[in-house]
Structure formats: structure tokens, C-alpha cells
Amino acid sequence: MPGQVAWLLADALKGVPDVTLLDLGAGTGQVAAALVPALPRITHVDLVDPSRAMLREAVVILHPLMGNRTLSCHEVPADRFDTQRPNYRADLITCCRAFHWMNRPAVLAMADRVAAPRATLALLGDGSLWTHEADWTGALKGLIQSYLGPGRRAGSRGTYPEPSRRYEDDLAASPFSDVSQHLFTFPRAWTPQQVIGYLRTTSFARPDLFAERHAEFETEALNLLEGLADDSGQLTEQVDFTVLLARRPGGTA
Q1: Which of 139, 133, 144, 241 is nearest to 186 (CA)?
Q2: Rounded CA gap, 249 and 131, in Å?
Q3: What pLDDT, in 10s, does the model give residues 129-184?
Q4: C-alpha separations of 153 from 49, 57, 189, 203 in Å
Q5: Per DSSP, what are the bridge partners of residue 24?
Q6: Which of 93, 122, 160, 170 has a CA-to-CA distance to 42 between 20 and 30 Å?
Q7: Which residues pair with 121 in a beta bridge?
Q8: DSSP one-letter code for 156
Q9: How does the average pLDDT of the chain come out, rounded?
């Protein structure tokens, strides 16, 4: 997550002395890892993700950043989050790309139950390498399709379902209907090895989709990317990072 986004979220929480962060679909904790240094007033972090392996990695990443803050992990889908902490109230609720796969109305209803009266809910997203348009991403997408077929795979779900409606419409139908949109555009550089590591975490190119051909695919993908990298060995994409800040009517987003 870019630093500008972290500072935007920090600014949205002005006046909140002790911030509880609830990160839904937390994955390896990248959102929290960006926010904790930018927002020293965070006193507690809740990470919610159904993958124990992801949460385990998140703890490793966050541990050196936490100081005297507290951290809790919840190995459940986002809509089933429930804390036993008395008088729990989340001041900032974040969710990145995983929101697409969630039961969105149920997640937003859960968020309403646990959010502080003037809480901010932030939906964050920058697409994926599947959707970015560059020579090297197009060539990589073509290689993936040569192994897995023309449709965008979505892990065990088959092919990727296009959203039935926009996130803005989900929010408009929720208690968090006061919404503002913020767009950050910036270049992002990858090394070929970083791209290979990223692909392993995606729903469209995770290792099990290739079965016994995964090693073959990674070798071919690495050779392709190394051939397309610039003189410094990097691959660059132009990123459009969108942030939807939402609050209950009467707050400010």
C-alpha cells in the first residue's frame, strides 16, 4: 500500500486518541504493516482472514512494528468476525482486494455492529497484474492462458466472476453510505522474481492450478520476464490505486 494512502487514512482519524484497526481479508498483513508506522495512535490491530498460513506470515511481518500495541488474529471469513473483547469498537475498518470474494452485504452489516459511532471504513484496491495494461503484463497473461485456458481462473471457484455491482453501490445500500473516492496514480517496479512470488498468491495463477506443470510454468515465466525487463532488471507498471472512504451519514469521509 503506498504511503499516500496510509497518510490519507491517518488524516481520516484525526481526533481519535486510541485507534482500533480491523483489517478484513488481511492476508499477510500488508495493510496493517503500512498503517502502523503512519498512525502511532493505533493501539490494537485485529486481522481477519480464513487462511491460517496467511495470518501466521502476517504476525511475522507485523511483530517488529507493533511495539506495545496488541495484535489479535481471527481465522474466520470476514462476515463471521466476532470479538469477545468487552465494549469492542473498531475505529478504522479496512478491506483490500478480498472484498470482491466476500458476502459484501453481510460484511457491511457485521462492520456496522462492531464499528465505533464515527468509524471510517476504507475499501482499497489497485486491480492485479491480470488487468494492468503493459507489454510485459500482456505477455505474462498470454503465457498463463496458454497453460490454463483463455478464461481468468479463480482458484477452486472456476473462472473469475465479474462484480454484479460497484462497491459504491454496496456502500450506498449499507449503513456506511457517506462515501468519498480518492485516486492515487504512481509507477511500481517489480523484479522478475517478485512477479513470480506474487503470482503464487493470486487466484488466477496459484501453484495448484498448474498441477505437475507448475515448475515448468515458473521457469518459462521467469525467462519471459527477464527478457522483457529493462536494463536495470526491472518491470514497471502504472498503478491506479483507489480508496473508498465510507462513514455513516453525519460523519465526514
Answers
A1: 241
A2: 34
A3: 877 888 999 999 999 999 999 887 665 555 555 556 788 999 999 999 999 999 99
A4: 21, 25, 25, 7
A5: 48, 95
A6: 170
A7: 93, 246
A8: B
A9: 90
Could you give the CA distance from residue 157 to residue 148 in angstroms, rounded to a whole number? Answer: 14
pLDDT of amino acid 58: 94
Alpha-carbon span 172 to 195, nearest angstrom: 36
The Cα–Cα gap between 246 and 236 comes to 31
**Digit-coded pLDDT (tens) for 62-79:** 999 999 999 999 999 999
Is residue 251 helix, strand or coil?
strand
C-alpha cell at 113: 455492529
Contacts of 180 (CB under 8 A, 6+ apart): 244, 245, 253
- For 1, half-sphere exposure in the C-beta direction (CA atoms, 13 angstrom radius) is 28
